[in-house]
Amino acid sequence: MQAISRQSISEELRRRFRQANNILVMTGAGVSAESGVPTFRGGGNTGVWKGLPFEIISSAGMVERDLPAVWEWFNYRRGLLESLKPNPAHEAIARWQTLFGDLTLVTQNIDGLHQKAGSRNVIELHGNIWRARCVDCAARHDLRELKFDNSVPVCFDCGGSLRPDVVLFGEMLPAGAFEAAAMKAEACELCLVVGTSAVVYPAASIPEIARAAGAYLVEVNPEVTPLSELCDEVLTGKAGEIIPLLER
Ligand code: APR
């Protein structure tokens, strides 16, 4: 794949990027690939944990049946993420907060790398691996403040069991997250979709909403996705190489 250069970005997109006041950026696992986070469908992910398919160990049913196993899986994943750093794509998007009147960052990622890069008010459609939630009172807790070994951590508000605060297979998105993202998508002038296979709904409908409302839709991905044909512009390549080019 030929490295993308500044010239590959159209004058149209440059102008819109320069003039936009209200933009929405939606990211998926691909934006974190260059930081070392395996993607789900890009072949990077093992897909199996201790003989259990990813869709099973990361499911609502598993929280019911075997919460300690769910924690063991998420403790392992947090361990993988601990040392990983944001890449130039995360860093550029964080800088854009001061570049635009209204920047909305919507992510499907639970890795917290956007926040580590300095992004604030991130709409997390699938939760965050660094947080836990009480199965009884729904209180949220920052896992960095919790000391627990491999047992199931306990809610110090009500004594209930905590579970990872991520959206598991078979579960609804966090209350209000999708609605907030959809509202912003309807109002944005420019929508950038970075590093998602665009196959998981309702997240994948956010760029469709933006396009239908008249936004200029741009995809950044080394591969073609079901969204590509809907886009005004497709930038084929890696997010860490392309995203910073938009500022120059
Ligand atoms: N830069 C940009 N895009 C990349 C890069 C990169 N360096 N490397 C890979 N990609 C692209 C892949 O081509 C693929 O289209 O990122 C996409 C990753 O797709 P998925 O692995 O399907 O991840 P995502 O779209 O975020 O998955 C959505 O599915 O499994 C659930 O909850 C999980 O949030 C996740 C959701």
Element order, helices and strands?
HEEEHHHHEHEEEEHEHEEH
Low-confidence stretches: none
Largest sheet, in brief, is:
6 strands, parallel
The overall pLDDT average reads: 92
Number of strands: 11
Counting helices, strands and paired strands, the structural category is: alpha/beta
Quaternary structure: single chain
Rounded to the nearest angstrom, the radius of gyration is: 18 Å
Q: Which ligands accompany this protein?
A: adenosine-5-diphosphoribose
Terminal CA distance: 22 Å
Helix content: 25-40%
Notable characteristics:
9 helices; 248 residues; alpha/beta; three-stranded antiparallel sheet; six-stranded parallel sheet; 28% helix
Please tell me about this protein's structure:
By secondary structure, the chain is α/β, with parallel strands linked by helices. The chain contains nine helices and eleven strands. β6 and β7 form a beta hairpin. Bound molecules: adenosine-5-diphosphoribose. The site of adenosine-5-diphosphoribose has 22 residues, from loops.
SSE topology:
Blueprint: H1 11-19, E1 22-27, E2 48-49, E3 52-53, H2 54-57, H3 60-65, H4 67-81, H5 88-95, E4 102-107, H6 113-116, E5 123-124, E6 127-134, E7 140-142, E8 162-166, H7 177-187, E9 190-194, H8 205-212, E10 216-220, E11 233-235, H9 239-242
Parallel strand pairs: 1-4, 1-9, 4-5, 9-10, 10-11
Antiparallel strand pairs: 2-3, 6-7, 6-8
The structure holds adenosine-5-diphosphoribose.
Adenosine-5-diphosphoribose is lined by residues 28-30, 33-34, 39-42, 108, 126, 195-197, 200, 220-223, 225, 238-239.
